[in-house]
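INFO  loader      accepted 1 record
INFO  loader      residues=119
INFO  predictor   begin
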Amino acid sequence: QVQLVESGGGLVQAGGSLRLSCAASGRTFTINAMGWYRQAPGKQRELVATITRGGSTNYANSVKGRFTISRDNANYTVYLQMNSLKPEDTADYYCNAATAFVGTRGDIWGQGIQVTVSS
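INFO  predictor   done
INFO  writer      dumping tokens
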């Protein structure tokens, strides 16, 4: 089993920056990919960015050129650097880990962390 602990976030003015962190523990060797999703009130949860075990990244069109996902060398922590923030980025952000081990698959979610961008 994998556990995820998120940190960072908060309140920032439009045009500012924030960095989110997601630390994985437990059976981290089962993780194939990690990513960040977000959900605003009354809206669907949407993918923000993902990074695979091999280092390939994928971004939502709305954040390309502004957000960067990365990981530490040991693959225990994933970061989301958010620059040029806009009010529409306001949401709860959730860390995700996609796991697979000997035929078992699963998605692990963090508790969510709030990001608020003021005009």
